[in-house]
Amino acid sequence: MKYVKPLSLLGNALKSKLSVPGRFLGLDVGDKYVGLAISDPLNMVASPLSVLLRKKTNIDLMATDFQNLVKAFSVSGLVVGYPFGKLNNVEDVVTVNLFIEELRKTEKLKDVKYTYWDERLSSKTVELLLKPLNLHPVQEKTMSDKLAAVVILQEYLDYANRCVNTEPAE
């Protein structure tokens, strides 16, 4: 896995020789679960995908799951939610960094690029959306993780597309 700057991720996908650029996978990394979202083929809209159970003993299995998702959805990069500016919550920063490092060490995603995107308000946004639905707590947690990944990925796509579309023509 290789880190790239946020705009480079979309720029690289657009510059690829493929007729359609690869899609992006959004990740909301938590202590117990990793929420996943996928972009549409044009990288304009994020949709909820799944939630993976996260344990220290299953990182190899998770890496295999990511390998399969990369192939199945033609994923060109990962957009990982990162707690920028959360000065009081160092644990969240450590959680994300440790997860990415563990994934990288499996060497199953060598060619996959990733970038970090601010996740600060994603969980709060989702909480406000789900509250009126009065879901069962287990169902709410699963939905919350997936939808937080959607918020992270959608905010990245909106920003990146806006920047790409406002660059001066050559």
Automatic annotation (TrEMBL):
Residues 22-126 form the YqgF/RNase H-like domain. GO terms for molecular function: hydrolase activity; nuclease activity. Keywords: Cytoplasm, Hydrolase, Nuclease, Ribosome biogenesis. SMART domains: YqgFc. It comes from the Eukaryota. GO terms for biological process: rRNA 5'-end processing. CDD domains: YqgF. Pfam families: RuvX (PF03652). InterPro entries: RNaseH-like_sf, YqgF, YqgF/RNaseH-like_dom, YqgF/RNaseH-like_dom_sf. PANTHER family: POLYNUCLEOTIDYL TRANSFERASE, RIBONUCLEASE H-LIKE SUPERFAMILY PROTEIN. This is YqgF/RNase H-like domain-containing protein. It comes from Capsella rubella. The lineage of its organism: Eukaryota, Viridiplantae, Streptophyta, Embryophyta, Tracheophyta.
